[in-house]
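Lecture 7, part B: from sequences to assemblies.

Below are the input chains for today's worked example.
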Amino acid sequence: MNITNTLYKITFASVLAAIVMTASAAPPKRIFVTNEKDDTVSVIDGATNTVVATIEIGKRPRGIGIAPDGSEVYVAISEENAIAVFDPESYAVLRRFEGGDDPETFAVHPNGNIYISNEDDAKASVFNPKTGEKIAEIKVGIEPEGVAISADGSKVIVTSESTNMLHVIAVPEHKIINNILVGARPRAATFNRAGTIAYATSEISGEVKKVDIASGTVIGKMPLADDKAKPKDVLLSADESKLFVAGGRANRIFVLDANTLEIHQAIPVGKRVWGLALSHDGSRLYTTDGVSNQVSVIDTAMGKVIATVPVGKFPWGVALYE
Amino acid sequence: MKILTRIALGVCFGCLLMSSIVGTELRADEITVLYVGAADSSAHLGARQGLSEANAQGEFMGVQYRMVTVAEMDQTKLTPVAIIAATQPTRLSQLVANYPDLALLNTTAKDTALREQCRGNLFHIIPSTAMLTDAERQWVQNASGSTAQARAWHHTFRKYAASQLNIRFKDQFGISMDDEAWAGWAAMKLLADTIVRQPTLTGAALIEELKTNLAFDGQKGVDMSFRETGQLRQPVLLVEQDKIVGEAPVRGIVDSSDLDSLGLAFCPK
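Predicted structure of the full complex, as structure tokens:
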């Protein structure tokens, strides 16, 4: 009885979800892309997939993120050791603040603070971007890189590339609660929505690892078939059934089963694909194809590229304004 | 600071005769790596850099390393987990024979003959002369007669986070990282990367793990493993007038991912 009931609920929920997804499959309003070698941000219109503006932002822009309320956009200006802030409607550069040494990747917390990895300092820093004030510093391993924040904001992962480790940091205590050894040169990580599991890419070992956060153990791993693959960004699909992995020099997006890590598909995109962003409804995946100077737009249901958008030189980070 | 103090102590013990004083200083939870060779040489500074990075990693995992430096091996009563050596081929051969159960990591001797001997516990971190010669030959074929010198490392190397390693080394010692410094760093770092995953590994088990399971990030863009000759597979840099002009295996001449196109790939039958 219970089983039938549950099945009915699951079926009903899936149908409902399908209806909702179809109904709301509207593209993001704008897509912001940092161009590492142009010192600019390209603004792509989500409806037409064309560049409608280019913002002069500062030297070597890389990480990019949007405030939880959508009011402003943050860009790590690596060579100026700063975070630049611009308005997503007017594109006006509002201000900048000190972001520590060589800020590269960061993530925006639901409370509005940003968590930055400072590569040359073996530290992660927490900033209030409204005031530019540094709230905390956390000592991590050598060459920290990727930053991921759980949906409820209670945990942050920082990857240490040269130390081959994921550091799980508790918020608001800003204490490391677990250190998890993964493959060589972990680049990026992402949490599941419940915050119980994370996935991480390792560039040198060319693999994805799945880790259990509570026990701090590796519970799955999958080498990416292509030995040229130097995976970077990793994201879960909206329904959390699939994992999207940017394959770097493999010039493909790998689509893995989030449960088994089995590789289902490899979607060809441009050269040296690094950055990923998924629309809220999960229907569109945007990739930065570094060497091809373009953004690919993937329809996730069809599993193929539906548009390529020429942007600036060496697109790196991508953020969606919805 | 604490780490530096420990290294300094280790160096000092090396100058003295190994005695019972060392024994009382040893802590049970520390993993000891012995360095045989001259203190403050390039390879030694590299190994010290590797030690500080090994301890930065170990701190998160409850593992601690110390490096004890000795000019000559016979002074010591230590039981190290492995030996990093920066010494002549004849001394290396003696060490290999005297300590058959210890992994011995060669950081300075490039002699191809040492690789041909295929000693079971001898690992070569520095590229062999044959590897460097092959790299130079590939480059000449590619660059229509332009000659370059093949090197394990270069202080201007930036790709694959090489610049971060160059910066860390220069910050700590005030000089540029060269080939032997890289080899010293890599020797200590690959030991630690292996041991941190299984801290109880010693002796023959550690040798076996290095031979079969290494996927080391030597900050040259690929995962490195050992050949059956004991040589660490690795790309090398091609340098002209103190500038990097290319990398080998040279793309267009061989498959650029075919690291075994450099030097002796297999033991002589």
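Note for the exam: Helices of chain A lie at 2-23. Keep this in mind when comparing with the next example.
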